[in-house]
Amino acid sequence: MGSVRQRGDDKWELRVDLGRDGKGKRIIRTKTVKAKNKTAANKLLLEYEYEVMTGSYQAPEKIKFADFVTEWKEKYARKILQESTRELYDSVIKNYLIPEFGSMVVKDINAMRVIHFLDNVKAFKKDGELSSSTKRDIYRVLRNVMQRAEDWEVIKNNPVKKIKMPKVETMKVDNVYSIAEVKELTEKLQHEYLHWKCFIYLALYGGLRRSEALALELDSIDTEKGTITVSKAIVRGEKGKGKVKEPKTKKSGRTLSVPQFVVESLFLLSKEVKINKIKMGPSYNQKENWLICNEYGHAYYPTSPNKWWKKFCLRNDMRYIAIHDLRHTHVSICLYSGIDPNTTSKRAGHSSIKTTIDIYGHQIIEADQDAAAKLNEQFNPRKQVN
Questions:
Q1: In this structure, are 48 and 76 located in the same domain?
Q2: How confident is the model at residue 78 (pLDDT cuts 50, 70, 90)?
Q3: Order of strands across the sheet with 221-222?
Q4: Disulfide engineering: 4 pairs with which of 41, 63, 164, 331, CB 3.0-4.6 Å?
Q5: Which residue range forms the structural domain that includes residue 145?
Q6: pLDDT tens by residue, 191-217
Q7: Can you give the pLDDT at residue 9?
Q8: Where among 54, 81, 96 does a domain terminate?
Q9: Which spans in the chain are helix H?
Q10: Is residue 358 part of a domain?
Q11: The Core-binding (CB) domain covers which part of the protein (predicted)?
Q12: How many domains does one find in the chain?
């Protein structure tokens, strides 16, 4: 038999009476939960009674980390995190956190133990130091899991909150195409399907992220002004379906100009999409007006461009770089062409100009040095005298 009683604002104590033990002592199981009112608390009581009666309940002070992670995945990760984020978190949990903390009781994981772990953790499947970014991922995942343990009153305080996040070395972008390779790629794209050509154009000449290019609609293109408006993103969702969401950051939503030949290709693609919609009739997607889509008007799943791109590079004997590196190539070209970092940052949809400078700082310096060399070449008085 169960009962509830209020313990504070939105806090309720659930009590389940299991009768008496062999010595006549009453067996009571309790659990404190958050609920807006008594009705909501009684619903939680039914779930709690089932857990206790079926033996699936574990007292908070005895829950092991591996068991808690299972609860965390079901009650938090699956509902809150995007699929791509869940994949990263699952990898970190499997390869680093479970081997270290899996058999430990959650309440026994303290700050000193976490600090020792972060200082000594080695790369998975190889004996060596982890990159600073991987250590930061490990820190974030562990902090997230332990924060849920605090929120759900399995522990009183999250020990990871007391520890500073590991510093990440500034990322440098070097794996980009040269001007000659960009010209070669542009030439070879002329023989490809129009939608894939436009997709690469958007990354290479507009700096769009993969998720942003896939989420463009017919009315995202203004052919008269020669602009593209980014307002959505398509990311990986559950069961092989893409998920439409807001862009990565507030400044990722933007309108930018693109070269005229890109505008012309996008215009031709929009005409092709409209013709195909009439041709396919009721079989065509009637809900959205995606620009880059299959013959039935459905947006491509986020990993589809990657598969096509690898095959394209192979059959055209192009040096392979990741699709996201085409975006890096765009930023690099802008900086080398003398476009100021602030304008370049806005085109890329970076959260701030600091992001652009931190990532591409070495290229900004090289572009500045190149500009100085050109000024010297043109205006050096000694050279003019000679």
A1: no
A2: confident
A3: 221-222, 227-230, 254-257
A4: 41
A5: 65-152
A6: 999 999 999 999 999 999 999 999 999
A7: 84
A8: 54
A9: 38-54, 65-72, 78-80, 83-92, 98-101, 111-120, 132-151, 179-188, 194-206, 210-214, 260-280, 304-315, 323-336, 341-348, 353-379, 381-385
A10: no
A11: 63-150
A12: 3
